[in-house]
Design a protein that fits this description.
It contains 1 helix and 32 strands. It is mostly beta strands.
Length: about 375
């Protein structure tokens, strides 16, 4: 076996490494072509504690890698683009799965994460298109953005309650994902979290969630049922846009804002219950919800954006609350036979007259008599 020393660096067999200040070794490059590789625990007489970034990148022959338990740190994209890698065993003391560790490892089918892991870095399993299983240990605290993005074979994911943050796009493009369990204590679902998860059928959003970001469930065409939390305050832009299978949305008191295109194109939505706390419906928020037959607008509503109900052709009658003080653009365009009920002298009446919309006027605002959600259960 060849052994050479070059300053702090040295070579042993197919491994290049360097001596660290603490008297341990870091693997910096692998030049071999083994398919099943047991990475050595000792090189040059030094215990191996680190694997440098890119050390095994593009090792096209590598199919299985066993990393010794003495390794405490692995660098970014250390195994990136290893196109034949199917399985890897990570060391028992590892606390962070680094950024892009298995980036583009298209043959990877499973990854055994040790119980010590506290964080999965950004894009750690990005485009691992064959990954069907990835254990997430109970002590895990954070999942980085795009961590499992494009894992098209992943069918279900259970995220432990210890997780307090999930980055944007963490599971975007997981087109086979059918079921997901979200951690109870998470407060925000970030942008594009489940964007284009075309087989996702049901989601229970935890009660602690206050904010849904942009495009969180956009394009989830099989999503039929969503349980919304009582503490939700904001639904972001395009959050459920294109969810053509969604039939029901019951939103609770506490919600104050539905942003633009939040439910646009939810063409199967037949039941929509909006809470009285809601005061802002943004542009095209419910555009294209053509199956919607009846709707009660919140008593405290102030703002209706341009195209907010455009194409809601199933609506035939809708009462505009007296307190609405802004209606923008073509809020009710292409709504077929819709007749608006407005309070005499209100801004809504003026809007209808100026835009030549069918309407009738009432002397005073009637009390909201539509269905309202019951207080949520607190088991």
């Amino acid at each position: 076996m060849f052994f050479g020393i070059f300053g702090n660096g040295f070579t042993e067999g197919n491994f290049r490494a360097r001596r660290l200040k603490d008297g341990t070794a870091e693997i910096t490059e692998y030049t071999g072509e083994e398919a099943n590789l047991r990475i050595p625990a000792v090189l040059g007489g030094l215990p191996v504690t680190r694997i440098a970034k890119f050390a095994f990148q593009r090792c096209s022959s590598l199919r299985h890698a066993l990393i010794p338990d003495g390794v405490r740190e692995i660098g970014r994209r250390a195994f990136g683009l290893c196109e034949s890698l199917t399985r890897v065993s990570l060391p028992s003391g590892l606390e962070t799965v680094p950024e892009e560790l298995f980036f583009g490892c298209s043959a990877l089918t499973s990854a055994d994460l040790p119980a010590s892991v506290k964080e999965i870095g950004r894009s750690a399993f990005f485009e691992c298109v064959s990954l069907g299983r990835a254990d997430r240990p109970e002590g895990l605290g954070r999942i980085g953005g795009e961590a499992f993005s494009g894992c098209r074979a992943l069918r279900e994911t259970g995220i432990p309650d210890s997780v307090r943050e999930i980055g944007p796009q963490a599971f975007s493009g997981c087109t086979a994902l059918e079921r997901v369990r979200l951690p109870a204590g998470i407060k925000e679902l970030k942008d594009d979290l489940f964007n284009r998860c075309g087989h996702l059928e049901r989601v229970d959003i935890p009660q602690a969630v206050e904010d849904l970001g942009r495009r969180v469930f956009a394009g989830c065409v099989c999503l039929r049922e969503v349980r919304f939390p009582a503490g939700l305050r904001r639904i972001g832009r395009d959050c459920f846009s294109g969810c053509t299978g969604l039939t029901r949305a019951v939103l609770w008191d506490g919600l104050i804002q539905v942003n633009s295109r939040a439910f646009a194109g939810c063409s199967a939505l037949t039941e929509l219950i909006l809470p009285d706390s809601l005061d802002f419906i943004d542009d095209e928020a419910f555009a294209g919800c053509k199956a919607l037959r009846e709707l009660t607008l919140p008593r405290h509503l102030k703002f209706i954006g341009d195209g907010a109900f455009r194409g809601c052709s199933g609506l035939t009658r809708l009462a505009i609350p007296a307190g609405v003080d802004q209606i923008h653009g073509e809020a009710f365009a292409d709504c077929g036979d819709l007749i608006l009920s407005v309070v005499s002298g209100s801004l809504a009446e003026q809007y209808c007259v100026e835009n030549r919309l069918p309407h009738d006027s009432r002397a005073e605002d009637e009390k909201n008599s539509g269905k309202r959600p019951l207080p949520p259960c607190n088991p």
